[in-house]
């Protein structure tokens, strides 16, 4: 093993592997250090949607879309708190990155309507297939060395104040490697760190924790030591839609509310507009009595399930006993132990309102964001799923510019240090748009490498 490389990449999920494959294509020498014994991090567990616009898959479905619309949606979901140059860089590079992923061997299956988008834009991947294809593309070059079980512990600056050395533990030894061009942090977020969640997101007490085992915020600490500024921490939110058992081996999730289900609390009362971001729904759900909530729907909504899909495979969850089914709302209420009369009234009022042009209580007029029309819940059988909030990705992190250079508190780049993927803050602002996290990991993983190899900002 040599000890000097063009690039050292810390973490091998979507961002790290896209960076490694991009660097390999440019003939750079690269060391990739991955803490766990397998690659993939949270990317491997993901719901598999990537947000791209104007693609062949959308055209096949007759969906008219372009980068500008995606950027508009992202700024709307982020409530304008996102760093506009980062969102615009996503818009500028998203289509090219989609085509690059396809040419690198990543398979996209179909497009789904997902949270925060005004048109169906969730391009589905099979995470394991994508991770393997990217790894193989990087490994084939012969210029990329991979180390698993290699935990990066500290970064060091050289005499020119440039971050250039990485100290890591591997096979029981402490080792040091040097980077001529850059150190790129792609070490993910901290959804598995009780320490950081307690410090930065006490409002998420009670949310279940899901994410890559190694995602405990190491990269954020490493960058902080070098002077990195932090962004978006006040906006940390959980994700609504998980069964309470989802922190086990099976990540059971159903978003029947985006197909038209209503969401109720233990008093059988609705408490939110079900079409808004599942992050914002999550914030409301954590405020409900005993944090108990249920999605309630009927057979026509059930029929819109998508077999094999991570978010919409309702039949599978029913077969697993995670969804309850009953011929009447009274029976359903009894099974899930909510007041039956109240459930009937809640459903009746909701049905009446949406048939009269709009939900009077919480303003629901669509299925998700600007897309789709809600239907009344009145065709038996009826279904219910107990649903909770999960902390699965921390969309806050180190401050970066549009070239993925890590910035200090004065907005100046820290020489030699780049970050991409979930570790980077400033991109999502106040809200996360589905598919934009895997999307930004791929897009900015590549941008970081392009900028680092040129040793200048990508303009
Ligand atoms: C259940 C679930 C569903 C999701 N669904 C979606 C979705 O549909 N669409 C979407 O866009 N996003 C989704 N997300 C979020 C998304 O998966 C992540 O934000 C994204 O995969 C992060 O990619 P990454 O490459 O930045 O980090 P990761 O894929 O997490 O990779 C980071 C890697 O760095 C390693 N690492 C950490 N510390 C060190 C260290 N000190 N030394 C060496 N290595 C280290 C980790 O072990 C890990 O392998 C979901 C997340 C979860 C958990």
From TrEMBL:
InterPro entries, per database record: FAD-dep_OxRdtase_2_FAD-bd, FAD-oxidoreductase_2, FAD/NAD-bd_sf, Flavocytochrome_c, Succ_DH/fumarate_Rdtase_cat_sf
Which cofactor is essential here? FAD
Which Pfam families does the record match to this protein? Answer: FAD_binding_2 (PF00890)
Q: Which UniProt keywords apply?
A: FAD, Flavoprotein, Oxidoreductase
Gene3D superfamilies associated with the record:
FAD/NAD(P)-binding domain, Succinate dehydrogenase/fumarate reductase flavoprotein, catalytic domain
Q: Which residues form the FAD-dependent oxidoreductase 2 FAD-binding domain?
A: 7-438
Record-stated family: Belongs to the FAD-dependent oxidoreductase 2 family. FRD/SDH subfamily.
Output this protein's name: Flavocytochrome c
